[in-house]
């Protein structure tokens, strides 16, 4: 068992080294030896993007961290379960001691919508996302641009978060809400 854990950790260090070699100064790790990246994790940093990771960040399989031009800042003791995706054009900040369930999607940008115009030609609008300390985000949650989530908040599985969430708050979404017809 000890040998299997050692091999698993060694593979993670090799993946981190490869990321550092490929991404260079764009990927900043606070403490290399306490960061764990599982297999098939995609870290993509383009243009002027940068990703900062704190101590003891654990990223499970098939996660995607994409930073097109902004900054992703991840605090200490953060856990991303399988299939978590962070897509950044401006700024995504995750505080310390946060847990992310499977298949969480975070986007700090979207397209505007105007009737009669081609969707592919519409401009992209970005706003920063701030996730406080000790936040627990359940599986299949989607967090959209401009959201701030306070410390000690819990986001229930399957929720769509497009407004600020206060500190020490539990949020869940009822699935059959009709917002407006278009």
Describe the structure in your own words.
This protein has 182 residues and is mainly beta. The chain is 12% helix and 32% strand. The strands form 4 sheets. Strands 2-5-8-11-16-19-21 form a 7-stranded parallel beta sheet.
List keywords for this structure.
about 180 residues, mainly beta, UDP N-Acetylglucosamine Acyltransferase, domain 1, 7-stranded parallel beta sheet, 6-stranded parallel beta sheet, globular, Acetyltransferase (Isoleucine patch superfamily)-like protein, repeat, Trimer_LpxA-like_sf
The percentage helix is 10-25%
Class computed from helices, strands and strand pairing:
mainly beta
Measured distance between first and last alpha carbons: 57 Å
CATH architecture: 3 Solenoid
**CATH class annotation:** Mainly Beta
Taken from the alpha-carbon principal axes, the silhouette is: globular
User: How much of the sequence is in beta strands?
Assistant: 25-35%
Largest sheet: 7 strands, parallel
Task: Reconstruct the topology from this structure.
Elements: H1 2-23, E1 27-29, E2 36-37, E3 42-45, E4 50-53, E5 58-59, E6 64-67, E7 71-74, E8 79-80, E9 85-88, E10 91-94, E11 99-100, E12 105-107, E13 109-111, E14 124-126, E15 129-131, E16 136-137, E17 142-143, E18 148-149, E19 154-155, E20 160-161, E21 170-171
Parallel strand pairs: 1-4, 2-5, 3-6, 4-7, 5-8, 6-9, 7-10, 8-11, 9-12, 10-15, 11-16, 12-17, 15-18, 16-19, 17-20, 19-21
Antiparallel strand pairs: 13-14
């Amino acid at each position: 068992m000890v040998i299997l854990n050692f091999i698993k950790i060694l593979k993670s260090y090799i993946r981190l080294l490869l990321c550092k070699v490929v991404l260079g100064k764009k990927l900043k790790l606070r403490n290399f030896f306490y960061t764990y990246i599982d297999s098939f994790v995609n870290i993509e940093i383009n243009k002027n993007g940068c990703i900062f990771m704190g101590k003891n960040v654990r990223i499970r399989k098939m996660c995607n961290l994409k930073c097109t031009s902004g900054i992703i800042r991840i605090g200490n003791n953060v856990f991303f379960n399988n299939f978590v995706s962070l897509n950044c054009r401006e700024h995504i900040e995750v505080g310390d001691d946060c847990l992310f369930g499977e298949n969480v999607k975070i986007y700090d940008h979207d397209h505007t919508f105007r009737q009669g115009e081609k969707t592919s030609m519409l401009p992209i609008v970005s706003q920063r996302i701030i996730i406080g300390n000790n936040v627990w985000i359940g599986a299949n949650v989607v967090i959209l641009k401009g959201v701030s989530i306070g410390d000690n908040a819990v986001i229930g599985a399957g929720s769509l978060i497009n407004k600020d969430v206060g500190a020490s708050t539990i949020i869940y979404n009822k699935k059959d809400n009709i917002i407006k017809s278009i």
